[in-house]
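Hi team,

As requested, here is the filled-out complex form for the adenosine-5'-diphosphate run. I kept the field names the same as last time so the parser does not choke. Let me know if anything looks off before we queue the next batch.

— J.
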Amino acid sequence: MRRLFPLLRPYRWLAVFAAFLALVQSFTELYLPTLTASIVDRGVVFGDTAYILRMGAVMLAVATASLLAAFVGARCASLVAVGFARDLRSRLFAHITRFSLHEFDKVGTATLITRTTNDVAQVQQMVFMSLRLMIRAPLMALGGIVLAVAQDAKLSLIFVAAIPLLAAAIAVITRKGMPLFRSVQERIDRLNLVTREALTGVRVVRAFNRTEYEEHRFNEANEALTETSVRVNRLMAAMDPVMATTMNLTIVAILWLGAVRVDLGELQVGSMMAFIQYAMHIMFSLMMISMILVMIPRASVSAARIADVLSIAPEIKDPEVPVEPEVDRGVVEFENVTFYYPGAEAPALSNVSFRANPGEVTAIIGSIGSGKSTLVGLLLRFYDVTSGSIRVDGVDVRHMSQQALRERIAYVPQKALLFSGTVRENLRYGRPGASDAELRQAAESAQAAEFVERLEGGYDAFIAQGGANLSGGQKQRLTIARALVRRPRIYIFDDNFSALDFKTDAKVRQALRRETADATVIIVAQRVATIMDAHQIIVLDAGKVVGIGTHQELLRSCQVYREIVASQLSEEVIA
Ligand code: ADP
Ligand code: MG
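And here is what came back:
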């Protein structure tokens, strides 16, 4: 929790005010029983109506003040808590979006979501409760005891029996509860994970008839969460009867022993009434203290989970003094690049060197898992190279700001991803300032214009989350259009053409040649036909470059390339 305190700073004055109101509320509440005592013992006993009315008015004023303090205090406290939670969430979100892909892999998306939502809610509740109760509860307990003793010291001996009993019960219950809270949060994580997987993968789940299996998995996670929650709640529920019993027994004892003392003339009736009220204040305060004691461990589990995320320093950082390339041409150079995925034993790329020039198409071909996507990911600096260097316009990508680097690049990912929103919004993702005419031209080049115009609403047609209402090829064409809208120096196409039929593939590439005439184009492909006319083709095999050259050159010199060509030719012949 301490690690999150700095975020409370903007709310400190409001918090102080809330605390002050809590103080006012406590004092007024403690004052009321004293007033009761004087009204009964002086007004009622002696039949002094004027006194009763006067003190009654005072009592009304004090009660109103107390109510007001309670009302405004609660409002201030909730403003602090809600504002703090909002800030915490945006801080978390901003921090997480700066994570490199490695950190996402490491922490896990599901738990990041729980931490941004559920855990923040826990902390928020904690802040609210603290502001409301942290001052009031101890003050009321102490004040209650002092004032009760002032009313009748002998009768106060009852508390010597009652309070330790209560305290012991609270201690036992909270001690048992703490380990359960972490478990609850972890099980919420698990439930989140299973739900997300089952829902995002619904097509696969259906196709493989695994609905029941997924239901089973969900139920397991659900049951686990339920079971722990029930245990926590059962434990907490034990608190209530223990409290109520102790409280009622205490009141009975006060009435009994008090009556004896009233008989003896050692205690007045009004004082006894006040005494009972103090007893209730004391017990209630202890209950509130126990609630805080329960909440603190629970919230600190959540706070620690949040602070852990905030303390992860993203591996990919901008340099202190970013270097801007002096030219803006889009020359890409790989020099002896070797890369291991974190924790991997074999390199995903080893000793890769090549140069991609503006105005040329550099194609990368290789079997699945040969490192093609890894190579372009490194250029985008999704990860940092293990050794060697990657330069854009002569500057190492690690020396540039990520913004400056990625500004120069338009990237079409292997897995077509669109966002929920209109077609127009999705295309403008490429460049926010693009005009409608530019969007249309990009769509035309990507062979997307035709189907977009057929959609209901055309460019205003709505795309569902993840582009679920489009076919794979349509999504792919829109992602290509989105990249074209960007008009950068460097284009990266990661295996996007295999989702298109041969004819569309050819058309898109023809249009691309026009659109990207003086840019550096890097095309990852599986089909030889897609890249045959590239200026240079890089053949990857198990992370190593086994050939660089034109189609003709490679046919002569590169065994792996010949095999790829041969396998595809025979496929076409058979087809
Ligand atoms: P390609 O795009 O050529 O099919 P990739 O570049 O995606 O191949 O993958 C190259 C190798 O790196 C594969 O062996 C794959 O298992 C591994 N790999 C890919 N992504 C990750 C990752 N996030 N973490 C660990 N290993 C990975
Ligand atoms: Mg790939």
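Two things worth flagging: Residues 211-263 form the longest helix (53 residues). The pocket of magnesium ion (ligand 2) is lined by residues 372-373, 414, 495 (CB under 6 Å).

Thanks,
J.
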